[in-house]
Amino acid sequence: xxxxxxxxxxxxxxxxxxxxxxxxxxxxxxxxxxxxxxxxxxxxxxxxxxxxxxxxxxxxxxxxxxxxxxxxxxxxxxxxxxxxxxxxxxxxxxxxxxxxxxxxxxxxxxxxxxxxxxxxxxxxxxxxxxxxxxxxxxxxxxxxxxxxxxxxxxxxxxxxxxxxxxxxxxxxxxxxxxxxxxxxxxxxxxxxxxxxxxxxxxxxxxxxxxxxxxxxxxxxxxxxxxxxxxxx
Length: 232
Description:
This protein is an alpha/beta fold and about 230 residues long. It has helices spanning about 20-25, 25-35, 40-55, 60-75, 90-95, 110-120, 135-140, 160-170, 195-210, and strands spanning about 80, 100-105, 130-135, 150-155, 170-180, 215-220, 225-230.
């Protein structure tokens, strides 16, 4: 019969195997390696540079590769993107989608979307592969078709992420994916100190997705955190 060790019992701590110890000791290095595992081409680097000049954050190369994989996994023909930026995430999504797939991307800044158009064209995508809609996400999303999308990628205003979730559940077909970018908030989401409203909203989003009976969730530690959930 097994019990707890007594006061005279010697307890030998379990040592991790060599490879586990290496990974644990060098976790930041491992994450950096994973984030750079898939190289980006010249077009993506151009789009990323335009985003930096405009003061916009872009998904990291690792997060972009994950988006490409997720779009391919669900054999996406219709994807909705909230936050066009300068086209970095859109290029990754289009690469993962079916050859006849259409990306619907929404952003309040037409100037940024013009850079995205150039990036999509330079990446070799026909103009009919991307439907670019200027405007606030919460004004545009209600006009999109119910259950008409295979994947919804949310990279807009983090204070609105919970609202995006509600719209995404309406837009997605059963078996579709919703993905939120930046849920780590550069480590602030798990920081015990006082946090701004944006971070509190992210924590609420994480709890809502994790506890939902309608979703199968996963949190991917790439870039600044990708929260993914499959709609049952």
